[in-house]
Design goal:
46% of the residues lie in helices and 15% in strands. It is α+β, with helices and mostly antiparallel strands. The chain has a single domain (78-113, 123-313), classed as Aminoglycoside phosphotransferase (APH), C-terminal lobe (Aminoglycoside 3'-phosphotransferase, Chain: A, domain 2), CATH 3.90.1200.10. α6 crosses α11 (298-313). The relative contact order is 0.12.
Amino acid sequence: MKNLKKIKSDASFREFYRKKGKNTNSIIVLAKKEKFKNLIIYEAINRILNKNKILAPKLFKENYKKNYIEIQDFGDQTIFKILRKKKINKLFYFKKIINLMCKIQLIKSRNIINFRNKIYYIPKYNRKILINEANLFSKWYAAQNLKSSKKKTFPKEFDKVIKKLISKLQLKNDVFVHRDFHVSNLMLVRNEIGVIDSQDALIGNKAYDLASLIDDVRFKTSKSFKKKIYDYYLKKQKNLIKNKFKNDFEILSVLRNLKIIGIFTRLFLRDGKKKYIKLIPYTWELINMRIKENEIFFDLKSLLSQNFGKKLNEN
């Protein structure tokens, strides 16, 4: 169709097209693979967000049989793009984002009627999911970068260390977690921040989305700036047990970034998406920053140093 223009895709199996209309544009989301997650779950989560007065793309039309949905167009102004401009007040935007995150974490809705007229329940971010995610590091990155002699022993050792770390998490899984909450998935829409890419949302740990925002592998910030954002979040939270939260924040940041290294390697090897590989060195830097300051990571640091010492030391 003449009025459809393909736009930049993401790490998923989806394709996106901008549809030009007389009065307003819309986005066609096409998903031939993982259709249920990328169309039904995505739209269901957007419904929950909108129901709770969080700006997320609304559904205009669906054709599930033909693998697409048509949703509201938020334009091209990601917060990531805005923050890369010179002389921009980064702290102003990050405070707005934290305010939004706090609002999202107050969401009590756990289910919604989806466009197929069935109830969608948001699952819990349980221990098994966390373990499987972290093990993507072993499955993809370690398998590609370790010597043959270590390829058999490392996954077992890594799995053991990860399980021990996860057992040290202290907060409940009781808040809405976007799970990919960073500045590339936040849009500026008429001076309001809109949320996209929310199909992976789960009910999980309060520290997770803050970790994905502050220790974002796509957008570099200084250690002092990270602390400002972290402290601002703490100020907004009246009943937070700070030492427990810090414990979980650091564990989840490291687990998430190990997962990301695995996913980026998979995107390159399996899907031929090369652009993500260049983000891996900074991901190592973020992991190193967290594990070198907290003795809870002693076993993980030791294991990574033995097998990927160069990656840690060069950062």
